[in-house]
Amino acid sequence: MIKSILRRIHQLSRRIHVRVILIALLALLALGMAALVAPLIPERLGDLIGADAVDRILQILASSMLAVTIFSLTIMLSALSNASSQWTPRSHLILREDTVTHSVLANFLGAYLFALVAIVMRSADLFDERGIVVLFGMTLAVVASILISLIRWIVHLEGLGSLAFTTHMLEQEAAAAVARAAEAPAHGGHALTDPESQIPEGTTALCAERPGYLEQIFEDLLEAEAADKDLTVYITISPGQYVLKGACLGHVAGEVDEDALTRLREALPLSEQRSFAQDPLFGLTVLAEVATRALSPGINDPGTAIDVINRLARVIVEARIDQPEDPSCPHLWAPPLQPKALYSNSFDPISRSASDALEVQIALQRALRQIADHAQDAQVAEAALEMAAQCLDRAQQEISFEPDLARLKAACG
Question: What dihedral do alpha carbons 260, 263, 264, 269 form, nearest 10°?
Fold first, then answer.
């Protein structure tokens, strides 16, 4: 239960509106605290700091921060649009969760609200001389935070929306999803590899109440509900799979009522878009889309494809498929990550798009064979060799020049 709550909080923290609201509330809270702290300030300090100095700074903040916030939002939207149009339309799903951008925009808007509310409170004579001292100190702290945010924003803008930045973010998300899948194979439950034989008869179907992609699986909620009602839950689809309304999400063995089914459905949220959270294949697919677009005739950029191939290799080599002997969720059965799917969603589409691009085909062979040599999981290594052979067969049909074929075969040796 706690694990699911923390996961939801982490995901909410990556939404821009959440950070903006929190910073704005902190700014308002700081102004409210000024009235409480004011009696603790020595009276002689009130004579050293005049109200005019505070009012002038607040006016500057109020007039400038709104413009800076709007301008920064324009830059962010432009970067998202640029990445979506040039690299892949799915890239905005990860760029919109950029925490640096969120923090900077939240600080700018929070500073604007701080200055605006402070001006209103000053006009209402809510600050005496000692309160003005507190307000002056808080205003200086806000100015310092703005300077830090501006420096972070300027440095961050050097790469925001660029190819290197976008592929780096996608690689990080894909690597994190692969690592989570390795830590909890089959989502912490038993591996459901043969549903027809492993799911007993007489189970209750767990059906979707609306269409959408399975966003993630809250396995601890499923385990808690199943353990409490002495149930066994069989999840038959994986995160990222699309289902229509009424489609089967899984089966429940045991006596289950409608309230329990509702709680089990809540642990299997459906969304209009796929999520990177528990879907390693989605991250690999989006990375591969960058490479396939680079290999299109209109762009013809094999260097980008080779860079993506190397990134994919770094992610997949860490994948693990082995199932633990003692699962953390004994009442749960779920499909494990399939090793072949790691390659069919990444290297395979790149190989098809590469056609007779010798440099890309050589990079594919080297990457796949390095995965086979250094993979932590035997199944992942074996699937890499199978994909390497498949890519080689495809390349040999596309490349007819004998010296090029000789170079490609040499790279396979």
Answer: 160
